[in-house]
Design a protein that fits this description.
Elements lengths: L1 E4 L2 E10 L2 E8 L7 E7 L7 E2 L10 E10 L2 E13 L6 E2 L9 E6 L3 E4 L6 E2 L2 E2 L6 E12 L1 E4 L2 E4 L14 E8 L10 E4 L6 E10 L1
Antiparallel strand pairs: 1-2, 2-3, 4-9, 5-8, 6-7, 6-9, 10-17, 11-12, 13-16, 13-18, 14-15, 14-17
């Protein structure tokens, strides 16, 4: 069950960690991009093995992200490292990547989905609700976004001229996507299936019928 109190969202969740089953009241937060997540920072220097860092996720397969740290400061959740299994004592081993990290986040990934309503309005020849139509162009206003999926098209925002050895830059702008095909609903599905920050602020479409 879910309840909202002003701008906060709470839900009753059934959690299963190994053989432990519990029910909890949890609050959604925009600051976290992984479910049941925790953050661990190496106490001395960056490394590849995070000893006893995630005991509540022991033995489970989780998604892992890492922060980018440099002269410009720290960018949280800028790298998606993939799926890893936490050791029996809560140790996360990233030695297979061969890269040192200072701060990592581990938890369960989820997909955020937004779907537009069917296109239904009165045109010059009456309602277009049941007529075949085509969404030619989709305009999506995004905030602090690294990746988005519009229907079956997956976009990771990297641009010509960028230094690929540097962390990617979160994008805040209106992006235009072109779409093919005809159907009767004219709906668009937008998903974020990678554990990055990002908000969808608005969606507009250009429809032909």
């Amino acid at each position: 069950s879910i309840i909202t109190i002003y701008d906060e969202v709470f839900c009753l969740v059934r959690r299963v960690f190994g053989s432990d089953v519990s029910y909890r009241i949890e609050k959604f937060t925009y600051a976290e991009t992984l479910d049941a997540s925790a953050t661990y920072t190496q106490p001395l220097a960056p490394g590849q093995v995070f000893t006893n860092a995630f005991p509540h996720l022991a033995g489970l397969e989780v998604s892992v992200t890492a922060d980018a740290e440099g002269d410009g400061g720290t960018e949280a959740n800028i790298y998606y490292l993939g799926e890893f299994t936490i050791g029996p004592t809560g140790t996360l081993d990233l030695s297979s990547l061969g890269i040192d990290f200072n701060t990592v986040h581990a938890g369960f990934n989820y997909t955020a989905t937004a779907k537009t309503m069917p296109v239904a309005f009165m045109g010059d020849e009456g309602s277009v609700a049941m007529r075949k139509k085509r969404v030619n162009t989709v305009h999506v206003r995004l905030m602090n976004c690294l990746s988005v999926k519009v229907d079956d098209y997956d976009f990771l925002f990297r641009f010509t001229g960028e230094d690929l050895e540097e962390p990617p830059t979160r994008q805040t702008d209106v992006f235009k996507f072109h779409r093919l095909g005809w159907d009767r609903d004219g709906q668009i599905t937008i998903t974020m299936d990678k554990p990055f920050d990002g908000l969808i602020l608005a969606v507009t479409t250009e429809v032909r019928w």
